[in-house]
């Protein structure tokens, strides 16, 4: 007996697109991608703040199945990445499988299949649900007293309005992550004055972010796909070094950390400013910030770094705890995301009515990033413990999607009706991962978005080879499968 699995993929960002194309290539045709945004791209659709650039080299920041030879630079701007993702969707003919402006509000397992409900009241039935809902998804707005009394404009970087006027204005930027650093660098030249409010300074490593890719390189790579594949493989191999540096203490880690310190020392000569910009934790502990322009921007005459804590926002600007008040026309919140929400606030109910909120009461947890006990036939792509700090997200998404297709194949062949990871296998994976996260640089004493509310590092602690081995073939001992009514 063969039957075509009905699949709902939630999210059309990198993970969702990788999943859809992988399913398509594996011969599965009955899938629907539900995307709440008005276009594909996930974070690359929602994020459009000035200066948005990916600090991962573009020749790596692409799918293995959709090589793009002609990126404009070594590090592509956000809009170019979004266009690339749109081109992949169009080029792979996914348009008629994609529903935009369609937000999923709930997904409920009936005992045999899933009922997925959208905010428009549409209900879809599916044999499998694949949540590719992303990590940098729900903007975090800090609870600063008086924020709602501010008389000027307030914008969160992840919800930038294209008509926001920045030139000639007094701008304050709160937040010192990759976003804050990029937006300050971009807004400083045109601003009347820019104040960067720095609660915790970040190590900012210099890299040639503005380096253009000559058009001839694009032409050559287009003509020689084998060479292009080799280049991609080299970048992938290079990213393995990054994973090693992050996960294991070594001279390589110390070397990179020395480079981060050197980047600060050589670009900020003023000892007082340098002192205020020096973090009290190791480089690489937080998501590393990379820039070629930030230190120059904040040294400009119209710029200042403010390290005094914010006391409150007033109608005119920001009152600091040292008694000073900064007058502000535009307040930019580069304050990041609720990074551990994953599929929530969707209401997800699995076997016996168990809710995801209850299952994750002590923090998000999955088996090998993709399966959750209590939730049969539901998989995540870039779920908990995903390697957002170390390994290519495109590689990880494609690998996970191929893993899932193996379950879809078994369903198609009538070997399983439902599949659910065991609690024991999930607990063992999480215990092992928790131990392996011990010596990682992310666990060296800083407060970062990698940490859950419970203080656990929510990242992948292993190298790419281990990830590939874990997700190449399902270990059937780790799953309950149901066939024809019996577990
Ligand atoms: P983030 O790294 O989480 O940074 C948030 C910032 O907001 C932190 O500096 C935080 O300070 C500050 N903050 C939060 N609440 C505050 C408050 N009440 N008062 C003062 N400061 C406050 O967020 P992000 O910069 O948006 O970056 C998130 C991730 O997106 C990055 O780590 C990266 O993975 C990704 N990203 C990538 C690129 C790229 O080029 N590839 C570009 C942008 C973003 P504390 O540190 O003190 O908490």
From TrEMBL:
This is Putative flavoprotein involved in K+ transport. SUPFAM superfamilies: FAD/NAD(P)-binding domain (SSF51905). Pfam families: Pyr_redox_3. It comes from Mycolicibacterium rhodesiae (strain NBB3). Coiled coil: none annotated. Transmembrane segments: none annotated.
């Amino acid at each position: 007996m063969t039957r075509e699995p009905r699949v709902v993929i939630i999210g059309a960002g990198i993970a969702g697109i990788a999943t859809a194309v992988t399913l398509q290539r594996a011969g599965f045709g009955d899938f629907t991608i539900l995307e709440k945004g008005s276009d594909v791209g996930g974070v690359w659709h929602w994020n459009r703040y000035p200066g948005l650039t990916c600090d991962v080299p573009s020749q790596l920041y692409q799918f293995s199945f959709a090589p793009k030879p002609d990126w404009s630079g070594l590090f592509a701007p956000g809009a170019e990445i979004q266009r690339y993702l749109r081109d992949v969707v169009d080029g792979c003919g996914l348009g008629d499988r994609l529903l935009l402006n369609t937000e999923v509000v709930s997904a409920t397992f009936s005992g045999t299949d899933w009922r997925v409900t959208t905010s428009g009241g549409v209900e879809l039935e599916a044999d499998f649900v694949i949540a590719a809902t992303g990590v940098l998804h729900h903007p975090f707005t800090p609870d600063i007293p008086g924020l709602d009394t501010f008389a000027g404009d307030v914008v969160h970087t992840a919800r930038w309005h294209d008509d926001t006027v920045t030139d000639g204005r007094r701008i304050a930027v709160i937040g010192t992550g990759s976003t804050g650093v990029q937006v300050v660098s971009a807004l400083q030249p045109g601003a009347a004055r820019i104040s960067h409010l720095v609660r915790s300074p970040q190590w900012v490593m210099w890299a040639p972010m503005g380096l253009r890719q000559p058009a001839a390189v694009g032409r050559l790579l287009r003509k020689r796909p084998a060479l292009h594949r080799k280049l991609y493989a080299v970048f992938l191999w290079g990213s393995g070094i990054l994973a090693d540096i992050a996960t294991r203490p070594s001279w390589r880690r110390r070397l990179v950390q020395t480079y981060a310190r050197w980047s600060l020392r050589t670009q900020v000569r003023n000892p007082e400013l340098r002192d205020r910009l020096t973090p009290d934790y190791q480089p690489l502990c937080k998501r590393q910030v990379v820039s070629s322009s930030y230190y120059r921007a904040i040294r400009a005459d119209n710029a200042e770094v403010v390290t005094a804590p914010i006391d409150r926002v007033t109608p005119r600007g920001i009152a600091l705890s040292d008694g000073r008040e900064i007058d502000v026309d535009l307040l930019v919140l580069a304050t990041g995301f609720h990074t551990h929400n994953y599929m929530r606030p969707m209401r997800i109910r699995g076997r016996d009515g168990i809710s995801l909120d209850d299952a994750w009461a002590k923090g998000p947890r999955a088996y090998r990033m993709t399966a959750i006990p209590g939730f049969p036939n539901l998989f995540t792509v870039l779920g908990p413990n995903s390697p957002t700090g170390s390994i290519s997200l495109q590689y990880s998404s494609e690998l996970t999607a191929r893993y899932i297709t193996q379950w879809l194949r078994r369903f198609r062949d009538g070997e399983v009706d439902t599949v659910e990871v065991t609690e024991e296998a999930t607990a063992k994976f999480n215990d092992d991962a928790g131990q392996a996260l011990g010596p990682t640089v992310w666990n060296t004493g800083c407060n970062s978005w990698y940490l859950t509310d419970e203080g656990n590092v929510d990242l992948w602690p292993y190298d790419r080879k281990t990830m590939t081995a874990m997700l190449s073939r399902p270990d059937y001992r780790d799953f309950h499968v149901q066939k024809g009514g019996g577990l």
